[in-house]
Design a protein that fits this description.
With 185 residues, this protein is an all-alpha fold. The protein is 76% helix and 0% strand. It contains ten helices and no strands. α1 crosses α2, α5 runs antiparallel to α7 and α9 packs antiparallel against α10.
């Protein structure tokens, strides 16, 4: 295992029992049995480590997703598997990192899905791009709202986000598609 991977796993493990604000470089290095200089060779601070985690995370199922619903459930599954890490990060000074992670990855995947189906959707490429941006922003905001509730449990999070995904597929997404078509005229 690489040194970077050790730091990433150790941070996620420490966040299971400590709030992010109580984790410092010294305690992280002790957990990894590394010197502080080693940490600073790779990262500027704890938040830089978190950014690296999000930058390099792969979401199981996202690459295979062919529909928006499959893509959203891939994010839901990933977030539930990494629940404490997400909730702790959302409720820290690094709250923008998980939001940017969800928005960026989802926007890219939705653009791919919408572009492949633009003929059936009746949209041009730029309209697909706008639709992907809007829908991704709303979805990432919804994830954030759930995680900002420090009392939310993994099961409650899954129930609320599943309900949101289902409703967004039947109400929100069709409305955004119609809106995108209307803007083109």
């Amino acid at each position: 295992m690489t040194t970077e991977a050790k730091f990433k796993y150790a941070l996620k493990e420490m966040m299971l029992s400590l709030p992010l604000e109580q984790i410092n470089v010294t305690s992280l290095c002790e957990k990894c049995d590394c010197h502080r200089q080693t940490f600073y060779y790779h990262y500027q601070d704890i938040y830089d480590l978190i950014a690296a985690i999000f930058l390099n995370e792969d979401l199981e199922g996202l690459d295979k997703a062919k529909t928006t619903k499959e893509a959203l459930y891939a994010f839901l599954n990933y977030a539930k598997e990494n629940f404490v890490f997400f909730r702790s990060t959302y409720n820290s000074a690094a709250h923008d990192l998980p939001d940017d992670f969800i928005y960026g990855k989802l926007m890219s995947k939705l653009l791919q899905i919408f572009s492949a189906d633009k003929k059936n959707l009746g949209l041009k490429l730029e309209e697909c791009r706008t639709l992907a941006r809007r829908y991704s922003r709303i979805v990432s905001d919804e994830f954030g709202y759930c995680f900002k509730d420090v009392k939310v449990t993994p099961d409650k999070f899954q129930r609320e986000m599943s309900a949101f995904i289902e409703k967004s597929q039947t109400v929100l997404l069709p409305t955004l598609i119609l809106m995108s078509k209307g803007e083109a005229k």
